[in-house]
Amino acid sequence: MAGSARELREKILELTGQYYEANWPDRVFRPGLDYVPVSGKVFNQAELISLVDASLDFWLTAGRFAHKFEEEFAKIMGTRFALLTNSGSSANLLAISSLMSPLLGDGRLQRGDQVITVATGFPTTVNPIIQNGLVPVFLDIDIPTYNIDTKLLEEAVTERTKAIVLAHTLGNPFNVDEVAGIAKKYDLWLIEDVCDAVGAEYRGQKVGTFGDLATISFYPAHHLTMGEGGAVLTSDLMLKRIVESFRDWGRDCWCDPGRDNTCNRRFDWKLGDLPFGYDHKYVYTHIGYNLKVTEMQAAIGLAQLEKLPEFISKRRENFAFLLEALADLTNVLILPEETANSWPSWFGFPITLSKNASVNRNELCKALEERKIQTRLLFGGNLIHQPMYHGVDYVVVGDLVNSNRVMHDSFWIGVYPGLSREMLEYVVQVLHQLLVK
Length: 437
Description:
Blueprint: H1 5-23, H2 45-57, H3 64-77, E1 81-85, H4 88-98, E2 114-118, H5 123-131, E3 135-139, E4 161-167, H6 176-185, E5 189-193, E6 201-202, E7 205-206, E8 213-217, E9 230-234, H7 237-247, H8 295-305, H9 308-325, E10 333-334, E11 342-343, E12 348-353, H10 361-370, E13 395-396, H11 401-409, E14 410-414, H12 421-435
């Protein structure tokens, strides 16, 4: 006999671990021949075994792995709830859409309301503002923290302002004292985009816990990966319910997929203009989406979660090495600085060329890429110059001088845990060769 299902499962998982060892052996880095990536997934047999384990259940939508991840991740991040979704961009869409809910009464956002953000960042931090008929109000950033310059923050608040949406750029927390202070003073919603900053702290408190909602990405470039995936964090029970509704087709029902009658009133509701007793599973409170995660993604994330402290430590270690090793180039490079009172969980190492540099940003990035060192720009640069925003209604407060500077002179290199000291030493060596004349 072939054995019981349990015995076969154990054998499959044992072979999966062996397959990892055979398929992903350790490799020696060859400077100039092998790429030094800016980011990437770091995994071992644990993730592969967890993925196969979940697939053998064939419970394809969210199930036991997803629920366990949400519970454990919320504890780590310091919030009551973590709601998994299919990407960090979807998390931003859910967070902003949830603030449009009629369930929030007079506090809800309405079309035409203004939302303060920054002009330099990733498009899908800002796009949901526009997609919901709201008006982004763009402020400038500071160099070298690359976070919001708060000098004009209060000036940007008008009677139409209802929310602030900001990312902790490249893992470096923004000035929470100033931002949260203004949000509290003017009774504004605050959404923290923590997609690049999992584990970062401000005054000893985890980022993602200062706002009403926070968003996370689990794309392969980020601190933890599920391949695709994201999460919305909150400690507010009403916001949790609303986010779930928008994520799950807009339905009023909160039953998990494949479950029925969690409320024990499935045929006893009277909602809207529907007849009494209309099946609660098919009652819709919001104009929602289907942005759920799969069980296999959550299984990968659950294995990754155990490595998070090590990942963060390695990112900070790599950042510190680059900061020290490039300190003698400050005549031509503006090196990054952490925000006061913060403990960053670095996503990348941002660099801005000074006026003294003998090359421009594009020339330097091209030269680095030719030498197998990957580079990335600071996402969309000054977003108002992106083609997608032509004809879009937005407000600019200030002159965005640093946002324009970043668009022309800034880029970043990697610090992710998959980079060895040999790789980083090669990066430092090449930068010196290109910049020291």
